[in-house]
Amino acid sequence: MNQGRIWTVVKPTVGLPLLLGSVTVIAILVHFALLSNTTWFPKYWNGKTAAIESSVSIG
């Protein structure tokens, strides 16, 4: 393990929950940003696809 000595400074019982918690918070923030700034992501989560939703007018 390349960064194995970090656990001599930070206990794993403190460091691992902080690491996993920060990854979770970042993932939630990214999903919230996608939900609030796009129109396709909420439709995707509701099970709709862009091919079904978009109507193509020919001629």
Explain this structure.
The core complex is formed by different alpha and beta chains, binding bacteriochlorophyll molecules, and arranged most probably in tetrameric structures disposed around the reaction center. The non-pigmented gamma chains may constitute additional components. It is a single-pass type II membrane protein. The chain crosses the membrane at residues 14-35. The protein has 59 residues and is mainly alpha-helical. The longest helix has 26 residues, at 12-37. It has a domain at 10-43. The termini are far apart. Helix content is 61%, strand content 0%. The radius of gyration is 21 Å and the shape is rod-shaped. The protein has three helices and no strands.
In short:
This protein is mostly helical.
Q: Please tally the β strands and state the result.
A: 0
* Outline: rod-shaped
**Strand percent estimate:** under 5%
Count of separate DSSP helical elements: 3
Gyration radius over CA: 21 Å
Portion of residues within helices: 55-70%
Would you identify the regions where 5 or more consecutive residues have pLDDT less than 50?
none
* Strand and helix order: HHH
Structural class: mainly alpha
Pfam families: LHC
GO biological process, one term: photosynthesis, light reaction
Keywords: Antenna complex, Bacteriochlorophyll, Cell membrane, Chlorophyll, Chromophore, Light-harvesting polypeptide, Magnesium, Membrane, Metal-binding, Transmembrane, Transmembrane helix
Family: Belongs to the antenna complex alpha subunit family.
